[in-house]
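Subject: Protein entry, chain in single-letter code together with its fold tokens

Category: Structural biology, sequence-to-fold work with a learned token vocabulary.

Notation: Tokens come from a learned vocabulary of local backbone shapes, not from coordinates.

Start of record: The labelled sequence and token lines come straight after this line.
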Amino acid sequence: MKKTNVIEVENLTKMFGDFTAVNAITFEVKKGEIFGFLGANGAGKTTAMKMLIGISKPTSGKAKVAGFDVFTHAEDIKKNIGYMSQKFALYDDLTVKENITFFGGIYGLSRPKIKEKTIALLEELGLQEVANQLVGSLPLGWKQKISFSVSLLHEPQIVFLDEPTGGVDPITRRQFWEMIYKSANQGTTIFVTTHYMDEAEYCDRVSIMVEGKIEALDTPKKLKDQFKVDSMNEVFLKLARNIE
């Protein structure tokens, strides 16, 4: 059975004055897919993501996210996606429970639904004992897991994750990816940026941006075959050298 596209992008471009930050990128993402969006710092990844999540207007091109046009229905896009930024959306001066309640309210969930979701989330993450602790007192890895779970509270079609595992230990990274797999298996589409090339191997498909353009896009296996290398890190290095 053919999966439907939940993100469709055609010649999407963003310019700042004379500088082209994102240069006519085209791709699509299917429902339930884990799509890796890779590139070095300054390659245009974050700028592209901001256009897709409805907080930055493109200069030209076309894009639909969750069926909504990025030019005309940015607010509808925001209601149908989850977003976890590199710097976390959680409030350090609120408890774990208060954060869940606060974001549940922002996402428009009813009080009974928030209560139900809070109990389920705390149980799933094994955080019942720290439910009333300030988020600021928790280890980084725990914050990231809570932040990801909070981005899924309203059961969005798509979750955008910007460098979600930066700065955590390998065990926590692995646990985080288990959470990503679980969500994808339940039909949530995951759009993830990462600079860890080993994490690219966990994605269904990967796009690699270099200087504002998508220079490669395929499954990790096909990209490794295409570039005749054994790892995504080597794909990235070879691609960067080819462009220079």
The chain has one domain: 5-88+157-243.
